[in-house]
Design a protein that fits this description.
The chain is α/β, with parallel strands linked by helices. It has 2 domains: 5-143 and 231-344, 3-Layer(bba) Sandwich (FAD/NAD(P)-binding domain), CATH 3.50.50; 149-228, 2-Layer Sandwich (D-Amino Acid Oxidase, Chain A, domain 2). The chain is 35% helix and 24% strand. The protein has helices at residues 12-23, 48-58, 93-105, 201-208, 210-215, 260-277, 281-306, 308-317, 321-329, 337-344, and strands at residues 5-8, 28-32, 45-46, 66-67, 69-74, 77-82, 88-90, 110-114, 125-128, 149-159, 165-171, 174-180, 186-193, 216-221, 226-228, 239-240, 243-245. Strands 5, 6, 10, 11, 12, 13, 14 and 15 form an 8-stranded mixed β-sheet that branches. Strand 11 and strand 12 (174-180) form a beta hairpin. Helix 1 (12-23) runs parallel beside helix 3, helix 2 (48-58) packs across helix 6 (260-277) and helix 6 (260-277) packs antiparallel against helix 7 (281-306). The structure holds flavin-adenine dinucleotide (FAD). Flavin-adenine dinucleotide binds next to helix 1, strand 2, strand 3, strand 10 and helix 6.
């Protein structure tokens, strides 16, 4: 039977789009080359607008630790801000994957092909939801940022005082994220610069940042240490003929924004509208605009992080800037990066 849509990749973007399309009566083949849900290098934080978008598509949410906001720690001092419109979630990627596949299985009209790489099947529309190394980047080129970065993530038992916030610690080698992950473990992710990259960078930062050292009784990794590099991807065009890219395949901001999955889920309804309406152009505009805001936010945070001591002084002197960054991060406000940067520096 000829299907309407072939979706390549059942990560957050592809699985959520399959749910949305299936619910609208569209016949979908969903290809996923992995045989079973698995972990992926990720900070695992889902920002509030991503929580809202996922809930709107799936009708429910995975059970996962709730976070009320962000806490930035720079040079031994900290500022924090709560998300203004509801909490975020921290969802282990293997659990999110399993939960999404369960939801997909409950939707009629979606044929899930686990353990199967995509082969063209004659579908009317093809969706590339296959991540930063999308096979469709041969057709719609993608570009890596000039500043190369490497991401590491794992789950750690032994860190005390992990509560209902995502904590971001800045360090000359990069940033380290600590967030609750359930059952007494913490998600720990390090985003490091390639030029100073060290394999032991994540544990090094846990030991080198005074507050984390003081809160860490021992470092027991409860899941494998996973890596991803290079971070970030710009994709100037995300549609071509019957092809549409979504999720990281359509461009990935630096993970310092924490926006990757939220942007994937927020793209699902515009993508489904485009496919059902038979015209992909409005989707492209929406997705590129989201990507630009996120990219700018990423560049801004990294510039602030690079001038560590000055940034610390400024953020601590003007804590009102932190809610502004949070607003941008949760997509409430478009960012005028130049103005904000002048204010910060
Ligand atoms: C270190 C790090 C930290 C991050 N932290 C955060 C964070 O805190 N919050 C956040 O929101 N985002 C974060 N991100 C980004 C987030 O991981 C991505 O935005 C998200 O995974 C994108 O989902 P996706 O579905 O587009 O792609 P992916 O999750 O990459 O899924 C793509 C899927 O496609 C499958 N696939 C690939 N090729 C094929 C093929 N040929 N045939 C069939 N299947 C195929 C893969 O197996 C995979 O399952 C982080 C990323 C990194 C690297």
């Amino acid at each position: 039977m000829v299907v309407d849509v072939a979706i390549v990749g059942a990560g957050p973007a592809g699985a959520a789009l399959a749910i949305e399309l299936g619910q609208r009566g569209v016949r979908v083949n969903l290809y996923e080359k992995a045989r079973a849900p698995r972990l992926k290098a990720c900070g695992e934080g889902l920002l509030p607008h991503g929580v809202a978008a996922l809930s709107a598509t799936a009708g429910s949410l995975p059970v996962a630790p709730v976070v009320r906001g962000l806490r930035f720690v720079v040079g031994g001092r900290s500022v924090e801000a709560d998300f203004p419109e509801g909490p975020g979630l921290v969802v282990r990627r293997d659990r999110l994957h399993a939960w999404l596949l369960d939801r997909v299985a409950a939707v009629p009209g979606v044929d899930v092909r686990l353990g199967r790489s995509y082969v063209p099947d004659g579908a009317r529309w093809v969706v590339g939801a296959d991540g930063t190394r999308s096979l469709f980047h041969r057709r719609l080129p993608a570009y890596r940022p000039a500043v190369r970065r490497v991401g590491l993530s794992t789950h750690v038992a032994g860190i005390e005082g992990v509560r209902d916030q995502v904590e971001v610690f800045f360090h000359p080698l990069g940033e380290i994220y600590v967030a609750p992950s359930g059952t007494g473990e913490a998600l720990v992710a390090a985003l490091l610069y390639q030029r100073t990259f060290r394999r032991d960078g994540l544990t090094l930062l846990l030991r080198d940042i005074p507050e984390l050292r003081a809160r860490t009784t021992h470092i027991e990794m409860t899941t494998p240490l996973l890596a991803a590099a290079p971070l970030g991807l710009r994709v100037p065009r995300v549609i071509d003929g019957n092809l549409l890219l979504i999720g990281d395949a359509a461009g990935a901001p630096d993970p310092v924004t924490g926006d990757g999955m939220a942007m994937a889920f927020a793209s699902v309804k515009p993508a489904a509208d485009a496919i059902v309406g038979g015209d992909l152009r409005a989707y492209e505009q929406t997705r590129l605009a989201m990507g630009r805001t996120s990219e700018r936010l990423g560049r801004l945070i990294l510039r602030i992080a690079r001038v560590d001591a000055r940034a610390a002084r400024t953020l601590l002197g003007r804590p009102s800037l932190v809610p502004t960054l949070v607003d941008v991060a949760i997509a409430r406000r478009a960012l005028n990066a130049a103005t904000l940067l002048r204010a910060v520096l």
